[in-house]
Amino acid sequence: MKALRHLVLAASAAVLAACASTTPYQPASAPGAFDGYSQTMLDNSTAKITFGGNALTNRETVENYLLYRAAEMAVERGYDHFSLINQDTEKNTRVNYQPSLGSGYGGYGYDPFFRYSFYQPRQGWSPFNRYSFWRRGIHRDRGFGFMGRSNDPFYRDQFRVRETSKYRASAQVAFGRTATPGSDHMFNAREILANLGPSIVHPEN
């Protein structure tokens, strides 16, 4: 049974690794959501654009995708250049606390994407809490020695902590047909599309 359980856990981890990926370049499910881009036209030549990514999408990718969307909109509307006004990147961090399941190496299971820390009232926070291993090891049922569970009344009070961060970039974009002389924030739309195009990941069909 133990071998079968480990096989199931390994298979589940492999499926998660295959399915999880960064947010592709796509429209968001809702304005400002963390799963793609959204835009609102403020007037004929100005728009507010946002791109939000999931926890596997880094800050640089989110900002590049916003820039790419601005370039696309500029060309679609017949403009050659655009500038970013009030650009900002928001970091949304979330900490999840879950009781340790005590499965897998070290007692906390297998997760291919995140490293967990564990809490023991006596030890504090540690990714390699000594009790988590011995609970599953040879001292599991003996209850003796400083590693034994009988000497630690808190051996069950163990939690795993996962911190995830999502990024969302936003900017007000002004479109133009000619570059403003001396402007450091004016971009050539077609050059942006050509330079960033190879790095843009689109949804799978």
Please report which band the strand proportion falls in: under 5%, 5-15%, 15-25%, 25-35%, 35-45% or over 45%. Answer: 25-35%
Q: Tell me the domain tally.
A: 2
State the distance separating the first and last CA atoms. Answer: 40 Å
Largest sheet report: 7 strands, antiparallel
SS-based structural class?
A: alpha+beta
- The number of strands is 7
* Chain-averaged pLDDT: 75
Helix content: 10-25%
* Approximate shape: elongated
The H-and-E topology, N to C, reads as HEEHEEEHEEH
Rg over C-alpha atoms, rounded to the nearest angstrom:
25 Å
The residue ranges in which pLDDT falls below 50 over 5 or more consecutive positions are 3-19, 103-119, 129-151
> Number of helix segments?
4
List its traits.
24% helix; 30% strand; 205 residues; elongated; alpha+beta
How would you describe what is shown here?
By secondary structure, the chain is α+β, with helices and mostly antiparallel strands. It has two domains: 103 residues; 57 residues, no CATH class. Strands 1, 2, 3, 4, 5, 6 and 7 form a seven-stranded antiparallel beta sheet that branches. Strand 4 and strand 5 form a beta hairpin. Helix 2 packs across helix 4. The chain is elongated, with a radius of gyration of 25 Å. The two termini are 40 Å apart. The N terminus is likely disordered.
